[in-house]
Amino acid sequence: MAVRRILFCGEPVLRKKAKKVRRIDDALLALLDDMVVTMLNEPGIGLAAPQVGESVRAIVVGELGEDDDEEMIVHKLLNPRIVEGEGEIEGSEGCLSLPTLQGIVVRPERVVVEALGPDGEALSMEGIGLMARALCHEIDHLNGKLFIDRAEPDSLAWMIPDDSDERGYRLASVSPADAVAAFQRLVEKARAES
Fold first, then answer.
1. Does 2 reside within a domain?
2. Which pLDDT belongs to residue 63?
3. d(CA 51, CA 138)
4. Count of CB atoms within 10 A of residue 31's CB?
5. Is residue 169 part of a domain?
6. CATH code of residue 152
7. What is the pLDDT of residue 125?
């Protein structure tokens, strides 16, 4: 298992519809394991294969236990799709591919997702609240969508470290276009350095 580099907004693979998994092999299982390690290393609560440069319909999502001392349960899902959704709730969202950016996104309060597990068996799982949000967010990645596409434009803001704020950061508003341009500059800088 290896920690993989997470791609930033501006990388073309993040805007493409990922390919359906047709065969589960050792390479795919290794990718899922790497995605779990990468997600936990960041730390995040979800990660989609395109975020690590693989255009395949695979996600990992962590489910937090009810108690703080419980370990996170990580779900590995192949070809996930939302088959049911209900309610609406708005909440703050961020993304490992858009670090330090946050915005308000309206998502279903409850979803049911059908997928294949790593063993190839069909499964169905329900997500409520944060889990529903995480499932929707990661499945969006498989369809070339980022949370910035769904966020209320006036709500986008950079999280800037600030020890004088009780949260440890302050928010600085940014337009969607300026945020995307900032990430594009990061991508171009990384390409120039490699």
1. no
2. 86
3. 10
4. 19
5. yes
6. 3.90.45.10
7. 96
Catalytic residue among 138, 152, 188, 193: 138
Where in the sequence is the domain holding 38, given as residue range(s)?
Answer: 12-193
Residue 91 included in any domain: yes
Tens of pLDDT, residue by residue over 140-193, are 999 999 999 999 989 999 999 988 888 888 899 999 999 999 999 988 887 888
Write the pLDDT tens digit of every residue in 129-141: 999 999 999 999 9
Q: How far apart, in Å, are the Cα atoms of 55 and each of 30, 62, 143?
A: 15, 21, 10
Tell me the C-alpha distance between 16 and 142, whole Å: 8
Q: What is the side-by-side strand order in the sheet with 46-48?
A: 46-48, 58-63, 73-86, 110-116, 122-128
Report the domain count for the chain. Answer: 1
Q: Is-catalytic flag, 42?
A: no
